[in-house]
Write a structure and sequence with these properties.
single chain, five-stranded mixed sheet, Heat Shock Protein 90
Length: 353
């Protein structure tokens, strides 16, 4: 091979080397570029890892807070359960006390009723023992006093005789009340209109009212017939109305009403007196109990006896503005069909007493 060929061959290889070096340089640049990209990606991954760690830490803290809140809620729930148990225990204690109170009240009411029955029994025994024996001589004495008062020679003594006769009549009325309390057999009752009995008796009560310079009003409601004993109801009305009149000052008003309420016929008698003391209310109807200076304590006892014989009930509303007696009569089965109609038209109870 000549020199020129050798030079050409050398140049060829040199060119190849230069090309190879350029390729290697390009590959090196590419690798550096990839390495730079890898470094950037690693940095991003490291940053993302830090963010995830940060979020994980936040989640751990949030979980701890939730666990604390759950613990607090559990504690509060336990406190509420304990409080509910305490309230339930207290309610049970109150129910037990209420039951004891009701039992004690029932016992007292039973004892009071038995005491009243004992007194009524005593009255009955007294009336049975002395009723006729006292009435017979009183009738004789009264007759002779009337005869003596009619003679001219005793005309001067006539006021005295009249006073003695009035006292005998009062004693006889007391004996009559004794006998009515002692009566044990059921009185004869028949279907009657309570308003008719009130209407017949009203002029007499009205006369008593006017003589005492007082007022009276009668408001009859639409009511069905009742099973009544006319004589006993008359006595009941006279006793209650006269008690009401005696309790009032002049110009006071006595009001009488009849109406249907809750399936009962109600008779309401209201006065404008000073009222009945609370400690005396539960004693009303007890034989011989009275707050009057000249009372016998038999008037209201007789009323209670009459009400009992009619299967009725007495309720009393009393204040410093006056007293109202409510007598509730049961409506017979024969009249029960019209009770609903009458209840809708019923006059409301007396108010303000």
């Amino acid at each position: 091979m000549g020199i020129s060929e050798a030079i050409l061959e050398g140049g060829h290889w040199a060119a190849k080397l230069i090309t190879a070096n350029k390729e290697l340089a390009f590959q090196s640049d590419e690798r550096e570029k990839l390495l730079a990209e890898l470094i950037t990606v690693n940095k991003e991954l490291v940053f993302q890892g830090k963010e995830k760690c940060k979020r994980a830490a936040e989640l751990i803290i949030a979980n701890k807070e939730l666990a604390f809140e759950c613990k607090e809620k559990g504690k509060r729930a336990a406190e509420l359960i304990i409080a509910n148990k305490e309230l339930a225990f207290q309610c049970k204690e109150k129910e037990d006390r209420a039951a004891e109170f009701i039992t004690e009240r029932q016992r007292r009411l039973f004892e009071e009723k038995m005491a009243r029955l004992d007194r009524l029994n005593l009255v009955g025994q007294m009336a049975a023992g002395i009723g006729h024996e006292i009435r017979n001589p009183m009738t004789t004495v009264r007759g002779y006093l009337q005869l003596l008062g009619a003679k001219h020679e005793y005309a001067v003594r006539k006021p005295t005789f009249d006073l003695m006769i009035s006292e005998l009549d009062r004693a006889n009325a007391i004996i009559t009340e004794f006998l009515s309390l002692a009566q044990t057999k059921r009185t004869e009752q028949r279907s009657q209109d309570l308003n008719d009995l009130l209407g017949k008796l009203y002029p007499l009560i009205e006369a008593d009212t006017f003589t005492q310079n007082k007022q009276i009003s009668f408001i009859p409601g639409e009511i069905p017939n009742l099973e009544l004993n006319g004589n006993e109801i008359t006595q009941l009305l006279l006793n209650l109305t006269r008690n009401g009149l005696e309790a009032m000052e002049e110009r006071g008003r006595l009001q009488i009403k009849s109406y249907v309420d809750n399936g009962k016929v109600v008779l309401a008698i209201a006065d404008e007196g000073c009222g009945i003391a609370a400690e005396n209310l539960r004693k009303l109807g007890t034989p011989f109990f009275t707050t009057k200076d000249s009372g016998t304590g038999l008037g209201l006892a007789t009323c209670y006896k009459i009400v009992e014989s009619h299967n009725a009930k007495i309720d009393i509303d009393s204040s410093t503005r006056g007293t109202t007696f409510f007598i509730s009569f049961p409506i017979p089965v024969a009249s029960s069909k019209i009770v609903d109609i009458l209840s809708q038209k019923a006059i409301h109870p007396i108010s303000g007493s």
